[in-house]
Amino acid sequence: MPHSFQRGRWLRLVPAGAAMCLSIATTLTPLMAGGPPFNENGNQPNGRSVTRDTDADDRAEYPGLTIVAQGNSTKAIRKQAVGELPLNRMHPEAQRKSQSLVKNVGMFRRLPTISFECDPEIYRYFIKNPDVAVSTWRAMEISQFQLHESGGNQYRADAGDGSVGNVELLLQTPTETMIYCDGAFKSPLLPKPIVARSLMRLQTTFVKENDGKIIGTHTGDVFVEFPSHTVEAVAKVIAPVSHSIADRNFKQMTLFVHLMSQAMARRPDWIEVVGNKLDGIPRQKQLEFLELGAKSYADAQRRVANANGTAPFSPDDVLSPFRQWSGDGAGLGQSQTPERPGAARVVQSSNKTEPATLQK
Fold first, then answer.
1. Where does residue 108 rank: exposed (0-12), middle (13-18), buried (19+ CB within 10 A)?
2. N or C, which end of the chain has less CB nearby within 10 Å?
3. What's this model's pTM, rounded to 2 decimal places?
């Protein structure tokens, strides 16, 4: 095989390897971060306000999402992101890992800031159960991605194409999450896997708008280190490709959470079909997924009834008249007769031939 052809194939593989950590991190982070806070005052991450200025292409490809700010990789943004890392709030080992990586960053990306309508409870559920989210992708036949819990706050990821990674939650607060990822891109055309490590900071908030809709907004900063200087040099050349992949993955994951929230509120039949096809997770988690769908649908119906001025219907609406009848002696199969206070009352039972006297 000509040397130039081999070199060409190697260069085509490097972008995939360089993007691998960005890809795994931006695929998993929206699902593995801590529960986002519910904010009533409209503040967004880092004090940025939503300007509702969305590119036409993004609107067409990602319906329901508002791209508040596109991704950015400038030196100024990178310097700001490094200074904002909450390293002093991590435990010593997590702090050591993070500081080591930040000192040797070969690639940086501030991911797009995205706003989207979403039920906070559903968002938090997928955050706390990322393996369930990944199982739904397989159930819907849109991905063969594998994710399995390997320990406390640790997961093993396998993209199914030779890319594998370990993901660890380093820090979780009401407003931000720090995630560490190491991975390797393997190929028979390469003598050794392309290895990379990444650190990601995710920030998420929810805002209740005037019309009652709940809008989530999140963004993330991703730092990637390549132990190989050769790979790092090539990665910098093809950085626009890697950045594009990272931005796309982040948008796709946001769209997934948004659409699952909509589906649970509107299509319980479809959610039941998906829930019964989940694999690779404990049965208990499968049942929790189905229960969440049922609750979301019931809550949505209640909101619609309230908006239309219709009182929500509950079992008590059915039982109250029967309880009242039972209490005054005029239950089903019985007839009530006028009575004087303190007097005995005669109740005719439908299954007795003689009256029974009840003493008050």
1. buried
2. N
3. 0.72
> For residue 185, is it within any domain?
yes
Cβ–Cβ under 8 Å, residues 147 and 130: yes
Does residue 165 form part of some domain?
yes
Q: Which residues are CB-neighbours of 148 under 8 A, at least 6 positions away? A: 131, 155, 156, 280
Asked whether residue 346 is domain-assigned, the answer is no
What's the number of domains the chain is made of? 1
**Token code pair at residue 286:** 């499968």
Q: In terms of residue numbers, what domain contains 82?
A: 10-304
**Predicted confidence (pLDDT) per residue in 143-167, tens digit:** 888 888 888 788 888 877 777 888 8
Does residue 98 lie within any of the structural domains?
yes
Maximum distance among all alpha carbons in the chain? 110
Q: Which of 233, 215, 315 is nearest to 17 (CA)?
A: 233
The Cα–Cα gap between 196 and 182 comes to: 6
